[in-house]
Amino acid sequence: MTRVRPFGEAALLVDPLPGVEAQSLAASLRSEPPDGATGAVAGRASVLVEFDPLRTDADAVAAVIEERLGRPAALVPGRQRRIPVVYGGAMGPDLADVAEHCHLEAAEVIERHAGSELTVEFIGFAPGFPYLGALPEELRVPRLATPRTRTPAGSVALADGMSGIYPAELPGGWRVIGRTPVTLFDPHREPPAYLMPGDRVRFEPIDETAFARRAGAPADW
Amino acid sequence: MTIEVVEPGPLTTVQDAAGRPGWRHVGVPQGGAADPWAARLANRLVGNPDGAPLLEATMHAPTLRFGTPSAVALVGELDASVDGLPLTSGVAREVRAGALLRIGSGRDARGYLAVAGGLSVERVLGSASTDLRGGFGGVEGRALRAGDRLGVGTATGGRHRWLGQWPSGPIRIVAGPHADRLDPAELVAGAWRVGADADRTGARLDGPALSVQGPTEIASVGLPLGAIQVPPDGRPIVMLADRPVTGGYPVPAVVIGADIGRMARLRPGDPVAFASVSLEGARDALRRMNDELAALEALDAPGDDELGWAGSHG
User: Fold this and answer.
1) pLDDT at B301
2) ipTM
3) CA B99/CA B67 separation, integer angstroms
4) A89 vs B: CB within 8 A
5) Which chain A residues touch B24 with a CB distance below 8 Å?
6) What is the pTM of this model?
7) Which of A200, B23, B104, B224 is 20 to 30 A distant from B240 in Cα terms?
């Protein structure tokens, strides 16, 4: 049962809420904000709604949230995106471990990953970092026991049934099976992120010689 | 008009009070001044709009040379001087062309220096704030270096002295959404110190290891400023300006908005005591902070002893 409750004196938390509905509610609250609201942030299964307590009160904001929850979730039409990726080798140091964990050959892991159409469920953790789901069950792997302090930019990784892509060099515990040469986040572009919630993503295997050629911002940004 | 960075200090960055709260849906942290109250106040003292870009200095801090005459204001307990004469926190000071402003260390971890007219810095994603992890905003997305030159805008407002004061006593918290898994009373009862690893992302606290009932992780939620996360190692973290957009650990309590600035000015090793307040108490505290920030006394034009460079006018 979805609740709306305080999260500090200047915010409300709406949870639990399925991911698609959370995205839809947050987008609605951003485009038509209640009086005094200052922000809406979707989590995996929740929405944080911030407001100025000196301009409005929690009850007034909650009433608007309740009304929006009653509206059907507006599914944002996603775009089709192809992400080129070099699998394995130095760019995919965890591919062998993932294959072993899943009782598959490395080639079978690649086949299942590249053969899936994944949806951007959520952007979080870092600017432009897409959480892509859902992977076939046979590719479910846990996070690394010891996260890397540096995961190279472009790393394509798996954890907990999802796939993710590191837009920049970051610490991280996801298992890296490949790397993409394309730019995913640029604060000077409009929009700054290439992938947005609702987009449908397919990974396209490429070989290392094509990597340099495909580097940079995708043509369909 | 430019300001030359003679000595940058360990971490001096361009920030603004609000950061960039409108890009969190693509994973960009809000950022901005770790103490938004002090940043707003420093700007008001030199007649700037609250949101003008300014400098955030950390621990011990920069030496700057001013190319042309201007006015500055420091907010924060850091030893500072202009041409060797002490610069007090909370009051605007005229600086002459060629003046050397030195900021050292003091009781506060952070201090804010505003210049009349605001710093001229390109806005990225709507803000002049520096996103250090992302490498954008402020000056090339990084801390200041020796030799950097900062442009300054046109001064518009007048100079002021602050007549208000910051709150004192324990840092006030309200119950968070996961107070059923960890009673906020445990935060109130514990003896805490700011950890050596505290930074703009969060103030990690040293003290008794807290244990959360039930699952140690949660489905990631958006994190408001001041949310106290408790990861599996039991060390609470008070989330500050550079916190990631979402977090996956339970939040038993939230530091109230009125006290987030005090929290951000605590130094590693400083003791921290918490006290629980109601949501209404938190709102009242917010109202009082806004009133305190409005307690300003206009200063006369140069000639006023407080503003003039005491002693020589050469």
Assistant:
1) 60
2) 0.93
3) 8
4) no
5) 39, 41
6) 0.93
7) B104
Contacts of B294 in chain A (CB under 8 A): none
Residue with more model confidence, A14 or B303: A14
Report the C-alpha gap between B33 and A6 in whole angstroms.
25
d(CA B208, CA A11): 29
Give the tens place of pLDDT for each residue, B147-183.
999 999 999 999 999 999 999 999 999 999 999 999 9
Q: Tell me: the pLDDT tens digits for B77-119?
A: 999 999 999 999 999 999 999 999 999 999 999 999 999 999 9
Alpha helices (H) along B215-313: 260-264, 279-293
Q: What is the dihedral of CA B309, B311, B313, B314, to 10 degrees?
A: -120
* Minimum CA–CA partner of B141 in chain A: A187
Of A5, A11, A43, nearest to B246 by CB-CB distance is A43
CB contacts < 8 A (A, B): 133
Tell if the CB–CB gap between A43 and B21 is shorter than 8 Å.
no
Distances (CA, A) of A191 to A58, A214, B93, B134: 31, 20, 42, 16
Distance CA A55, CA B131 (A): 29
Average pLDDT score, chain A: 94
Question: Which residues numbered 98-137 in B keep a CB inside 8 Å of some CB on A?
Answer: 124-125, 131, 133-137
What sections of chain B are H helices per DSSP? 36-45, 184-189, 260-264, 279-293
Residue written as token pair 């119950």: B175
**Alpha-carbon torsion (A93, A98, A99, A100), positive or negative:** positive
CA distance to partner chain B, nearest, from residue A160 (Å):
12
Band (B312; pLDDT cuts 50, 70, 90):
very low
* Residue from A2, A4, A7, A184 whose CB has the most chain B CBs within 10 Å, to mutate: A7
Whether B250 contacts B230, CB under 8 Å: yes
Tokens 């007549």 belong to B163
Q: For B42-69, what is each residue's pLDDT tens digit? A: 999 999 999 999 999 999 879 999 999 9
| Rounded (10°) angle between helices B279-293 and B36-45 | 20
